[in-house]
Design brief:
The protein has 335 residues and is α/β, with parallel strands linked by helices. It folds into two domains: 3-53 and 108-331, Rossmann fold; 61-107, no CATH class. It has ten helices and ten strands. The strands form three sheets. A five-stranded parallel β-sheet has the order 5-4-6-7-10, with helices on both faces. It has a three-stranded antiparallel β-sheet with strand order 1-3-2.
Length: 335
């Protein structure tokens, strides 16, 4: 149908012209956040225990790297240059040679929640904006990550007015995560139409350079949008080392175009006028949009990543029930 079918012209009003009204339009309500956290705490494990574990943070899970720690791993012969404090003198006396007691280092996996704050996410026709739904999903996945004792870091893309988010590092406390997501919602509201370009290539490069193997990466964006995360294959290098979960947030009119008569759509060469009153055109539009999501899901799952399509107006209790299905489909445990 063409690229212009995926971007409706114009954006919903943010509830007023004042910064306070704009922030209120994007920020989820307290009750919604509470429901998202309650549902997120009931999610299954975001990553299986057999997946490689990070070693940059101290934690309760076992790392792949051997060294200092409390969990005994093995005894081996002393190697020149090692600290003498590692020698087990009692066992060395029985073995007639210096023996070293080796432990497995404690570690804590990390969950990195990527929130797309670009212009395409500032759209919504029912109940809430796509960005608001993405923030609710971020709360839910953060709750699930904390339940699994994962440290959580929030990454805001297309948001230039939220200092400190990229440098803050992972945290493991609910209060700290709530504060960061609240600050992000406020900054996104204040930015309004001045959202920065979404640099997905730069994000992937940063994550590949600094994330330890075995991290969970949750991408909250719109895979139908031209400014979305691109193609699933672009994430292949990260998928080889990390556990990826893609959540595509879309508004219902982006899947099922309503009859609005003659409407202008944005295209690369300018505005294009289309007659949405044509039932044949609307059916074709809906088929192509769903086919695009299906291709995205199949490509993501081929990489070992989970994929979930999330309507912007869905309530947490409804869409969170689909997360275990998406995770099980990738792990091969689906019924």
């Amino acid at each position: 149908m063409g690229e212009f079918l995926r971007r409706a012209a114009g954006r919903p009003a943010l509830g007023g012209s004042s910064p306070a009204a704009a922030c209120a339009a994007i920020a989820p309500g307290r009750d919604e956040v509470a429901m998202a956290w309650a549902g997120g705490e009931r999610l299954p494990a975001l990553v299986q225990e057999g997946f490689p574990t990070a070693t940059r943070l101290s934690g309760d899970q076992l790392a792949r790297r051997l060294g200092e720690g409390l969990d005994f791993e093995q005894l081996r012969a002393y190697q020149p240059g090692e600290p003498a404090a590692r020698i087990d003198w009692r066992i060395s006396a029985r073995a007639n040679e210096p023996m070293v007691r080796v432990h497995r280092e404690p570690a804590q996996r990390q969950a990195h929640v990527v929130v797309d704050c670009g212009a395409a996410m500032r759209f919504g026709t029912h109940r809430r904006l796509k960005l608001t739904q993405a923030l609710l999903a971020a709360h839910a996945f953060a709750a699930g990550a904390l339940r699994q004792t994962l440290a959580v870091e929030i990454h805001a893309l297309g948001e230039a007015f939220c200092p400190g988010h990229h440098a803050a590092g992972p945290v493991s406390g609910q209060a700290a995560i709530l504060q960061r997501l609240n600050e992000l919602a406020e900054a996104a509201g204040e930015a309004g139409e001045q959202s920065a370009p979404v640099d997905w290539a730069g994000l992937r490069q940063r994550l590949a350079q600094r994330l330890p193997s075995g991290s969970v990466i949750i991408v909250l964006s719109d895979c139908l949008s031209d400014t979305g995360p691109g193609r699933a294959i672009d994430w292949a290098p990260l998928a080889a080392e990390q556990h990826l979960i893609f959540v595509s947030v879309s508004d219902r009119v982006e899947l099922d175009m309503p009859d609005m008569g003659l409407v202008a759509f944005e295209a690369a060469g300018g505005a294009r006028w289309l007659d949405t009153g044509s039932g044949r055109w609307r059916d074709r539009f809906a088929q192509e949009q769903r086919a695009t999501l299906t291709r995205w899901r199949e490509s993501a799952e081929a990489l070992g990543a989970a994929f979930l399509s999330l309507p912007a107006d869905a309530e947490p209790a409804d869409w969170l029930a689909e997360v275990p299905v998406a995770l099980a489909r990738v792990s091969g445990t689906a019924a």
